Amino acid sequence: MTLTELATTGVSLPEIGMGTWEYHAGPKPLRSGLEAGALFIDTAESYGSEPVVGEAIRGVRDQVFLATKVSPHNFRPTDLRRSVEASLMRLGTDRVDLLQLHEPNPAVPIADTMGAVAELITAGKVKFAGVSNFSVIQLEAAQKALGKFSIVSNQVRYNLIDRTIETELLPYCRAHQVTVIAYCPLARGLSRICDCDPTGVIAELVRETGKSPAQIVLNWCVCQKGVVAIPKGNSVEHILDNCGASDWRLSETQLTRLNTRIQHRRRNRVDQLLRQWLPSPLQSLAIRSLNRMPRRLRRRFR
Ligand SMILES: NC(=O)c1ccc[n+]([C@@H]2O[C@H](COP(=O)([O-])OP(=O)(O)OC[C@H]3O[C@@H](n4cnc5c(N)ncnc54)[C@H](OP(=O)(O)O)[C@@H]3O)[C@@H](O)[C@H]2O)c1
Fold first, then answer.
1. Taking burial as the number of CB atoms within 10 A of a residue's CB, which of 29, 33, 188, 261 is the most buried?
2. How far is the CA of 236 from the centre of ligand 1 (A)?
3. Hey, whose CA ends up nearest to atom 24 of ligand 1?
């Protein structure tokens, strides 16, 4: 597994970690991923996966980079402290390596939230502070509020077909040494990426490299400077396949073929806001309706 430096912390992070949203396969697949070198697990208080992550890291805690998230309704200092204590309890550990604010919450002053995060770092319960789904402006405000500590990462959606962050956020993170943790690096399912591959470039690269489709897609992601990826797999097979996306590189020409032949989008601000604020039941309904559309039409809305 290739390691990369987390921001400028001196800490090495596997370029492929393991996501655990909608993970329900028990500790064994996660354990096999850890043994294959994906010593980086991402969870969140809202995922319901902290207990199984706790089981998976038991006995190897010190070798694992453990990231969790606090939900926006817990951003007030007292709630945040309580929320982190509960996460630590569920994870069976006394500290997390990365505490991420799951998404911005304009209803709570960022200075209050970051003050509480700084206290947790000082107390040794949190090693590093990160954010998720923060825009450049929100990231700057959070960094200012955190003061002497650095925000080391921003976890955002990034994959071959959704390249929204390339316009503004990714260049900013690179310039300010904030690691981008790419979520949904498989676009929540390879079929969505295939929908956007009308000329079959992924199948060509599978034949040329002998790698799997998921490995091609994930390797593209970690070839981007300053980016690590956290695919979620619900089986040993998927997790080990994903670990095999590391330790090799697509060539420059292969990357160019993916960049030019996979249809991707960069969402505008209105689209981004809609995605962020649409209530979950409506989001699920929209996804179900989308999946019933013919492929050519589906591609336009991904
Ligand atoms: N911060 C945020 O707001 C946020 C939002 C979304 C996600 N995330 C994080 O990012 C992680 C990853 O995102 P995600 O879970 O939404 O989607 P993802 O990793 O892009 O895709 C997961 C899907 O890909 C399938 N898959 C996994 N490995 C595969 C392989 N080798 N070959 C073929 N199919 C494969 C999975 O199937 P199986 O499940 O059957 O294995 C699942 O259907 C999450 O688990 C979570 O930790 C964070």
1. 33
2. 14
3. 189
